[in-house]
Amino acid sequence: MERLQCVTSVSKEAKTIPVDFIRSADEQPGITTSHGPVPAVPVIDMANTKHDQIIDEIVKASQEWGIFQVVNHGIPPEAIQQLQRVGKEFFELPQEEKEKVAMVPGQLEGYGTKMTNKQEGPKNWVDFLFHNIWPPSQINHDFWPKNPPEYRNANEEYVKHMIPLVDQLLEYLSLGLGLDGNVLKAASGGDDLRYLLKINYYPPCPCPDMALGVSAHTDMSAITLLVPNEVQGLQVFKDDHWINAKYIPNAMIIHIGDQIEILSNGKYKGVLHRTTVKKDETRMSWPVFCEPPPDTVIGPLPQFVSDKNPAKFKAKKFKDYQYCKLNKIPQ
Fold first, then answer.
1. Does 273 qualify as catalytic in the annotation?
2. pTM for this one?
3. Number of C-alpha atoms within 13 angstroms, CB side, residue 279?
4. Please, are residues 230 and 28 in contact by the beta-carbon 8 Å criterion?
């Protein structure tokens, strides 16, 4: 399979991109991005000693945006920098080295270029690497690069610091709905909640106004925790406009995913977002999707369903939800 990094070298010489990467006018970021004054993605300080204030800010951001940034989140800057360093080194390896961890049919883990063979429409300007990083029972090291040698240690160190933050966020999201603090985590799979890392690699694109790194979507996770490199590119759909989500160094970007939206019966909103690319810079990002185990049934919690407020979503096993979403089948 041809990888985007190979396409890029040809496109750079030609100063054009293949037609199958060109978006329609209603998707092209050069046409659809709002350039007027735009609101900033909320920033929440997790070190605030007034926990009620943190909860209120998370609730407001999750209802109005579906995305927020957290600072003083407890993940050491060195752990983030190491994660990013080894990920960048992997994508800079010779092609044959990267192919050693290539995706195989029927698996969502591994190095790849597109998610499914049924993908229709324009291609995304991205190569990626997927693999589980937690819990240990779900880790398959066949899909973890052996090169660079520090790759495994950097990922294990990073997730060790991430677990308490995920627990804290799910607790605050629960309390913000008037629930006991453990409810959303328990409903999402409890200690069996799976952490799936994706590294997105968006190489320079000769025609960035016509292409997208990743097209508009919501995450199918419960929540997603993301760190990018220094190159901006995340866009959020807010108030009927695509706006640039400017993020701050060492912050963690939090996306509300579909499963939390479903559990809350729409009280919290999954964020619709997309990724733009740059002409002369490589953008990278490291989202971790916190997902329920495949057989966990996710539906609106009974506390949020009544005659006046019926269920907005069907209850179904996460693996069935995932299959429908990946194959663009209505839920």
1. yes
2. 0.96
3. 7
4. no
